[in-house]
Amino acid sequence: MKIIEGGVTAPIGFKAADFAAGIKYQGRTDMAMVYSDVPCECAGTFTTNQVKAACVMWDKKIVESGSKMQAVVINSGIANACTGQEGFDACEATAKAVEKELGVPYDTVAVASTGVIGMQLPVDKLVNGVAGMAGILSHDKEAGTKASKAIMTTDTINKEYALTFEVGGKTVTVGGMSKGSGMIHPNMCTMLGFITTDLSIDKTLMQQALSSVVKDTFNMITVDGDTSTNDTLLLMANGLAGNDTITSKNEDYDKFYEALFTICRFLARKMAGDGEGASKLFEAKVTGAKTKDDARTLARAIVGSNLSKAAIFGCDANFGRFLCAMGYSGAKFDQNDVELFFESKKGTLKVFDHGNPIDFDEEYAVSIMKEDEVMVVANMNEGDQEATAFGCDLTYDYVKINADYRS
């Protein structure tokens, strides 16, 4: 694989655009469109919250129907969740506006929203935004970057990534963008993610790959323990790379899987490190677990604990907080088997060894925890399974941001 510049417009045949529609934000763009020159096979994963936004149900219908997908329209600022029939009408109006402007069937147009729950979308602004974007769609790298910025809410940085690899002598490109900063918890998060590729691949295999990759990437993020109503991750493949269609789990499928995992993991880590109010990325790596589920459960418990997150913010090597979180996670283990470490680019420090605390250098521990990326490593010494979860520290700014989110 080769990492390249760009995002969703990196693969052949994909265009993007952004627009300042004034849906909630002023003085910035707040709508984006991703469009393929030809219809795409599509796959998707969505929130497990029982309260689902209208756009989530709209997109699930497209993905599960076996239909093609050719465009996605995203707005930031208003979530279109808990909005009743009016919310569904807004989805349809947006999709039909794309049909009018670009001539693609409205039932191949996905829609996505992020922002405040319980507010109705201004349909006239959405339609106007679609018209504005239809005329400026571009294959340029900059168009993809601008789209990744337009979908931000409380994010402080845009998130995009792209790479290439070879399949049957053809160069295949995969690009992606995502947003997410708060209301983030496993299964998935307040995240919108869009991945494009010019690979030709069977739709069923696409869905299997995406559903599998999500388990160890986006589903391993937690910022604040809240699972959103709007989580949407869409994958579109238009086949324009010209490779023979992948129809079985062979070597070519493995290459695609690795590329998809790489992009999703990169975006997941970027989202976790950009959690609302965060000052650093906080990762937990669990090794030597009995089962994969145990490893995932333990890692998520460590990064999900408010006390753990506060300790990371304060650079306090209070290892008991992390062990406590592991203990109530639901995974079964013997504390006398556990080794615990703090790790960053400053080095690695062991603080707990098979049931016993270690007399460690507190100043060195602080220097490790002051870095922008800090990891807690827990070796369970009970098996061969491992998992990594992604989170962030808990700062004063998190409360400030969410206390006045609607104002």
UniProtKB/TrEMBL annotation:
GO CC entries: cytoplasm
Record's catalysed reaction(s): L-glutamate + acetyl-CoA = N-acetyl-L-glutamate + CoA + H(+); N(2)-acetyl-L-ornithine + L-glutamate = N-acetyl-L-glutamate + L-ornithine
Keywords noted in UniProt: Acyltransferase, Amino-acid biosynthesis, Arginine biosynthesis, Autocatalytic cleavage, Cytoplasm, Multifunctional enzyme, Transferase
Pathway where this protein functions: Amino-acid biosynthesis; L-arginine biosynthesis; L-ornithine and N-acetyl-L-glutamate from L-glutamate and N(2)-acetyl-L-ornithine (cyclic): step 1/1; Amino-acid biosynthesis; L-arginine biosynthesis; N(2)-acetyl-L-ornithine from L-glutamate: step 1/4
Binding site for substrate: 153, 179, 190, 276, 402, 407
Active-site positions on this chain: 190
Localization (cell): Cytoplasm
Main location: cytoplasm
SUPFAM superfamilies documented for this protein: DmpA/ArgJ-like
Enzyme class: transferase
EC code(s) of this entry: 2.3.1.35, 2.3.1.1
Family matches, as Pfam families: ArgJ
GO biological process: L-arginine biosynthetic process; ornithine biosynthetic process
Entry's Gene Ontology molecular function annotations: L-glutamate N-acetyltransferase activity; L-glutamate N-acetyltransferase activity, acting on acetyl-L-ornithine as donor
Quaternary structure and interacting proteins, as annotated: Heterotetramer of two alpha and two beta chains.
Its biological purpose: Catalyzes two activities which are involved in the cyclic version of arginine biosynthesis: the synthesis of N-acetylglutamate from glutamate and acetyl-CoA as the acetyl donor, and of ornithine by transacetylation between N(2)-acetylornithine and glutamate.
Coiled-coil residue spans: none
HAMAP family with a match to the protein in the record: ArgJ
Site (Involved in the stabilization of negative charge on the oxyanion by the formation of the oxyanion hole): 114-115
Family to which the UniProt record says this protein belongs: Belongs to the ArgJ family.
Protein known as: Arginine biosynthesis bifunctional protein ArgJ
